[in-house]
Fold:
Amino acid sequence: MIGPRTGRAIAAAMLAATTAVAGQAHSSGINQGAALQAGPVAYVNGMPPVMDHNAYLHALLDEFEARYGADGGQFRYDGQAWYGTDYDKLWLKSEGTVGTDGRFGDGDHEVLYDRAISRYFDVQTGVRVDIDNGPTRAWGAVGVEGLALYFFNLEATAYFSDRGVAGRVQGSYDLLLTNRLILQPQVELNVYSASDRARGTGSGLSDIDTGLRLRYEWRRKFAPYIGVAYHGTFDQAASMARGQGARVHDLNFTFGIRTWF
Structure:
């Protein structure tokens, strides 16, 4: 049986041991804090632990669709791909349309250097080449691309050549009806400083291509869609289209797929 004196001795010993352990822990914490304040953090190979210097490949086929209207069927594609880091990229863009006459038109192909200038926008510069059923045209290009206010996808590009200057503005917005069902309005406007009858473009506002597409992301990288698309020409371009017997304003039902990797 443990007596009162023995019990008090055991309690005193336990209290002393606890106090010593706490003192050692406090002293160790002070030493570690001093060590952390003694100098800067040393990274492996001098590189901070972030992933923005790695190079990646990304490709997006935004439109791959059939269009049906009063004059018959058409096919249109619009895609882009880039390779690089978060700051510097090589960017490729291409779009075109196979019309109701079976000819490939509206062929626009661009090779651009892309540099991040802010959290949401990049500046792009390079060349654009119009290659399709019509005569080939080459342009220099400079513009910006990124996310505008409220996360609108925005592209604004200026083009220049010995034939004058041109400009293109494109925008789209993804409205999430559910996590997989997405409604996307889209618009593209083209303006030129001089007309080019061989390619059917006129000075001023030449044409607009816009649409409203409803897609279902069956897989995040694969989404079939349906929608309506409108293509219109204006001013001098409209006069050229009428002279060739083409429609000035064309409304089509469309369906296709959107995919990326």
User: Anything to note?
Assistant: Confidence is low (pLDDT under 50) at residues 1-13, 15-38.
